[in-house]
Amino acid sequence: MPKGGRKGGHKGRMRTYTSPEEIDAQMKAEKERKKDEEEGAAVNDEPVEEKPTESASDDSDDEDTQKRKGVEGLIDIENPNRAVQKSKKVADIVLEGPKELSRREREEIEKQKAKERYMKMHLAGKTEQAKADLARLAIVRKQREEAARKKEEERKVKESAAAAAAAAKDLHTMSLK
Predict the structure, then answer these.
(1) Helices and strands in the chain, H and E counts
(2) pTM for this entry
(3) What pLDDT, on the 0 to 100 scale, is given for residue 53?
(4) What does the alpha-carbon distance between residue 25 and residue 31 come to, in Å, rounded to a whole number?
């Protein structure tokens, strides 16, 4: 027995298809709605005449579809994903006007300018980091100078010691002769 205790599953159910009459009715309703929208957009001053309904049963159906639950009756909302975006014509687009930058572009430009200002101040030695770097460099220079002086002194001491040893060797060899 499969999991869930049922034979088959949700995929084995009988499928329902839309009849051609229903599809035609939906298409007609869609065309009428589009026509009404176009007429409303074309003539804003003239009131659009509503078509009278054929029977009272149609009126009750319209009321049912217009009745909404809870707050839906107070707020009229359209699905923004369903709204058709109208394409702009190339002739309508104005390219001559000043182009406004996006927030990211503006932030990027500001960031680059701030970086340039900081580098100028850094090279002039006005920033905290530049002052710390210069102090570190001064300490390193002093240490190197001291190391060079010590090396020079040690070299002189070795030379004088070598010269004294050579002189002592010469004296020793002369005394043996």
Answers:
(1) 4, 0
(2) 0.33
(3) 47
(4) 10
